[in-house]
Design a protein that fits this description.
371 residues, Rossmann fold, Dna Ligase, domain 1, D-amino Acid Aminotransferase, Chain A, domain 1, nine-stranded antiparallel β-sheet, four-stranded parallel β-sheet, 17 strands, globular, disordered C terminus, binds adenosine-5'-diphosphate, binds magnesium ion
């Protein structure tokens, strides 16, 4: 078994990816450049990754016969999406090397489990309480105070399943709005900055880390990522040490993104983990020697990890919903690298693409202030 766990998947091999979104799409493109073929497994037809993949299986995540055929056709299995049932990755891991291992997915796909794991390895997080049912919310809010944030423990992304409980918010209403079965209440962090760190770890335990980036959200969705982040060397060093520590404790093989808050006293608190490529790492395609997607492929296949050196300052801006209609103007800007995901419908809140502005001259400029 251990030999299998260290198996190198050489170029020419087939990488199986669970999930078919833009993260899978950009991974497949990086994989192709290194001579791999990608087989995606995703319940949706016409998923962004399917346009650039060698094979696509369109089937439910619990379709055993489809999973079996998928496993037989690939050399290694990974995922680009967290809400894959544990039973699916457990089943696949018995058939083919599955990286990261199923336990990593299990620990990070539920917020309470994730925060308890972080506490168990002495990583500081926001204060939180388990709100297993609506009746428990009142005492939890009393204990943590207002404002606080109620989050659904499972299936949250882009701020979905989250409610901020301010001074006059009715708790029953908050519970209904959150919409989940189990909640986690978090103390509201009045942070100075949000940053994230992406670390890669190979089957041999080698690691490579990207420097911290700074993230700004709009309507709870990532809007802009800036690199370098405006933090001190000490904060950056601490953030990187935390990310490495978590990856090692998880025995991660693949990528781990660690979202963090930096407080007024320069404390670094972990907000959440994502054991896969991350939106805040998209700048690496254009601004780093090795993109996060290539790094992901290298880690999962057991290849030497690439240089994470940054060769430009960069600002990455997401194109959400109708923003994508500005593509012509963006293409006319020589400092802009445009990336579109091939999604047909520009629904509000949907990530349609992103662009990276390299070496922005007047300090930090975001997409909003360009004319
Ligand atoms: P997801 O990214 O899965 O939607 P997050 O937990 O990362 O969920 O929350 C989304 C954003 O909401 C965060 O990036 C941050 O801006 C804000 N946020 C989340 N939790 C807190 C908190 N405890 N205090 C302050 N802001 C928060
Ligand atoms: Mg987040």
């Amino acid at each position: 078994k251990s030999a299998d766990q260290n198996q190198v998947i050489a170029p020419g091999g087939v990488i199986g990816i669970l999930g078919g979104g833009q993260l899978g799409r950009m991974t497949a493109m990086a994989a192709a450049r290194l001579g791999y073929r990608v087989h995606t497994f995703c319940p949706d037809r016409n998923a962004p990754a399917s346009h650039v993949s060698w094979h696509n299986t369109v089937a439910a995540y619990d379709n055993k016969s489809a999973l079996k055929a998928f496993a037989e056709s690939v050399d290694v299995v990974t995922f680009e999406f967290e809400n894959i049932p544990s039973a699916t990755t457990d089943y696949l891991a018995a058939l083919k090397p599955t990286r990261p291992k199923p336990n990593v997915l299990y620990l990070t796909q539920e917020r309470l489990r994730e925060k308890r794991f972080l506490a168990s390895i002495n990583v500081p997080t926001t204060k939180f309480l388990d709100v297993g049912r609506q009746e428990a919310l009142e005492s939890a809010v009393k204990a943590l105070g207002r404002p606080a944030i109620l989050k659904s423990a499972e299936f949250g992304y882009d701020g979905k399943g989250q409610v901020r409980i301010d001074g006059d918010m009715d708790l029953f209403e908050a519970w209904v709005k959150m919409g989940g079965e189990v909640g986690i209440l978090e103390a509201y962090v009045d942070f100075v900055r949000e940053i994230s760190v992406i670390v890669a770890r190979g089957p041999d335990g080698s690691t490579a880390i990207y420097q911290p980036v700074e993230n700004q959200h709009k309507n709870h969705i990532l809007d802009v990522t800036m690199v370098p982040a405006r933090v001190s060397q000490a904060v950056a060093g601490r953030a990187e040490a935390i990310a490495r520590h978590i990856a090692t404790e998880l025995e991660l093989v693949g990528l781990l993104a660690v979202e963090m808050f930096v407080t007024h006293n320069d404390e670094v608190l972990v907000n959440e983990l994502a054991p896969r490529p991350h939106n805040s790492g998209h700048w690496t395609i254009d601004g780093s020697v090795t993109s996060q997607f290539e790094q992901f492929v290298r880690a999962v296949c057991g290849l030497p990890l690439g240089s994470t050196e940054r060769h430009s300052d960069a600002v990455m801006k997401n194109l959400i919903g109708d923003d994508v209609n500005g593509w012509r103007e963006l293409l006319n800007d020589p400092a802009v690298k445009l990336h579109l995901y091939g999604k047909e419908e520009a629904r509000p809140g949907r990530k349609m693409g992103h662009y990276t502005r390299l070496s922005p001259k007047a300090g930090i400029r975001t997409g909003d202030d360009r004319r």
